[in-house]
Amino acid sequence: MTDTRTPGRRSLVKGALAGAAALTLASATTPVASASGPAGQVLRLPAPTGPYAVGATVRRLTDPTRNDPWAPEIGVREVMITVLRPAASGRGFPRVPQLTPGAAAAFTVLAPLVRPPLPGAGVDWAATLTHARAGAPALPGRRPVLLYSPGGGDSRCMGSSLAVDLASHGWTVVTVDHPGDASEVEFPDERPGRDRIRTTVLRPDMDAAAFRTMIDTRVADLRFVLDALGLDRAGLYGHSAGGAAVAQALHEDRRVVAAVNLEGYLDRVDGELLPVARHGTDRPLLLAGTDGFRDERLDRSWAALLGHGGPVTRWQLAGGDHWVFTDHASLVPQLQAAGLMTAAERAELVGTVAPRESVPAVRTLLRSFFSRHLPVRAGG
Questions:
Q1: Beta strands at 197-199 and 184-186: parallel, antiparallel or unpaired
Q2: pLDDT in tens, 45-93
Q3: Which CATH number fits domain 12-373: 1.10.540.10, 3.40.50.300, 3.40.50.1820, 3.10.20.340?
Q4: What is the residue extent of each domain of the chain?
Q5: How far apart are CA 148 and CA 159, in angstroms?
Q6: CA–CA dist 59, 178 (Å, integer)
Q7: In degrees, to the nearest 5, what angle opens at C-alpha 21 toward C-alphas 18 and 24?
Q8: What is the pTM of this model?
Q9: How far apart are CA 229 and CA 252, in angstroms?
Q10: Which of 52, 188, 252, 322 is the most buried (most CB within 10 A)?
């Protein structure tokens, strides 16, 4: 999300979008591939805590009724999703990498641009494995579905740990990419108007109109995924821009029965409140934040929603900062331990809280919330 607190504070606009010249690699696959360099530090994601193994399937969904707002030459709107389902066993099935080799090559270049102060070298981003298993057959039966929308400038892959943990406890979890503002998205193939790997088009001078396009497009993407998967009820959770989008989708679509906004502003760059904050909601909405990211703008937009009453609650993690709700909660401390990041840089991204505290706290928070409002039934 755009951060308007102080000029010295890195934000989506200053940090996630800095280095606009480097982002011209959006259509240049050779520089991206060559930038991956030799193997570096291998990072690990924490294991899920639920009783089930998790199977993963990657899908492309195409909406012919919409054009892509960031690249109209494509002619349609495409999204990539990963479907994570509880499985009887993962034995014999390979673990899914957090980033495919092509996406990892792009992220090696983009990491210090979209998410300062991530290092520009010394990390083998292709080597991190999730705890989901490719091809592991899903358990029989219908299960409640959760959709995840990542933060602005992030791909769905940076929310893997939380998504896999939720799936290990019985939910079907669908992580959604929003091409055009996501750092990088890899498609199964090329098509007219885009390459196989599509990188972000966002720039440091993103104005109010571009911000509106980002949020409105994300809401439309989420509603389209509900349509494409034939869902008549689902829970949503999202981080930063994704948090704003899921809150607004809750307001617009009655199929969304509950949502969790992980530290997303509920207004636009110009201060206009999103409709969900102006009018309130009659369905459960959790606003989860950190003390490190809390500011007047967040308080104002969240207070507007809370002022309407209804089933809206606020929760705060002590010692955390904005990216603690993503895989960075566990990855960034490993980068610090490897000498690739300072303590101050770590604190800027995820705060000072240890992952042994932050990761279980966030996982437990979401499991508890969705267990109340979209529970997993015994036997599926």
A1: antiparallel
A2: 999 999 999 999 999 999 999 999 999 999 999 999 999 999 988 899 9
A3: 3.40.50.1820
A4: 12-373
A5: 8
A6: 13
A7: 115
A8: 0.91
A9: 18
A10: 322
